[in-house]
Amino acid sequence: MSAQAPMVITAAMIGAEVTREMTPHLPITPEEIAEDAAKCREAGAAMVHIHARKADGSPSQDTELFRAAIRAIRKKCDILVQVSTGGAVGMEVDERCGPLKLTGADRPDMATLTTGTVNFGNDVFWNSRPLVREIATRIKALGLKPEIECFDAGMIDEAFALEKEGLITFPAHFDFVLGVGGALAARPEALDFLRSYVPAGSSWTCAAMGRHQLPFVTLSAERGGNARVGLEDNIYLSKGVLAKGNYELVAEAAKRAKAAGRELATPQQARELLRLG
Predict the structure, then answer these.
(1) What is the pTM of this model?
(2) Which residues span the domain enclosing 154?
């Protein structure tokens, strides 16, 4: 993608780690998720990345929870819906793939695929090679384009291996997740290396953690990439100031993208730019 292409902003709305104790603005119910998603769309996001939560706030990959959230979102707006297959640390493959059972009108627009194991704070986000191939196979069977989530550079190499095996196709779309404790740091040099390393013609998004989130929107905009913001990765609009919802982080990202000379992609433009079919 070039610096002239519209910028795709994705709102990572929920995650599996953030709690209501950390921020009261975390959306949990399908209605809350849909309301925030509609505000994100209005603020400039083209896509939402969603996890699911039970009524008590604990993370779940239950198919029906995703179905309810997707239906609620699509009643509110036309934003693209990307589902997580990462789930929460410790989940097994069948549980993680719960949203990949959705078909027809409830089928998501995209799904994530993490291509390697990585330290995740004091935990380990376990993605063995057989597990990665199983999830890639299920994503392909549903006819979805995966977003290749890369917490470290070797995960790009694994994408090349998956392509040779026919499990994904190039050009692909990559998400560089920077700043997770124990993984690749949120540094401009890291971003520049990763974006130089992806297959020709591929698109990329950067998701930087915590205080790095919004500054990396500017860096990504200047480098012709896309940005992921939201409460999954960062709960603060500025130092000590909680974002009142994902939409406030999207609005700030939109402002920074425009300041860097980038227009914002609509959901339809994002579908074309990310080759979602």
Answers:
(1) 0.97
(2) 9-273
What length is written for the chain?
A: 277
For residue 4, is it within any domain? no
Backbone angles phi, psi at 67, to 5 degrees: -60, -45
Summarised one tens digit per residue, pLDDT across range 62-88 is: 999 999 999 999 999 999 999 999 999
Nearest to 40 by CA among 86, 81, 83, 97: 81
How far apart (Å, rounded) are the C-alpha atoms in residues 269 and 272? 5
In the chain, the number of structural domains is 1
* 120, 188, 213, 251, 268 from 29: Cα distances, Å: 26, 36, 25, 22, 26
* Cβ contacts of 90 within 8 Å, gap of 6 or more: 123
Residue 18: other Cβ atoms inside 10 A: 22
Residue recorded with tokens 């693209």: 80
In a domain, 219, yes or no: yes
What spatial distance separates the first Cα and last Cα of the chain, rounded to whole Å? 17
Which of helix, strand or coil describes residue 214? Answer: helix
DSSP 3-state helix, strand, coil percentages of the chain (rounded to 5)? 40, 20, 40
Q: Are 255 and 215 in contact (CB under 8 A)?
A: no
Q: Does the residue 166 lie in any domain? A: yes
Mean pLDDT calculated for residue range 146-153: 98
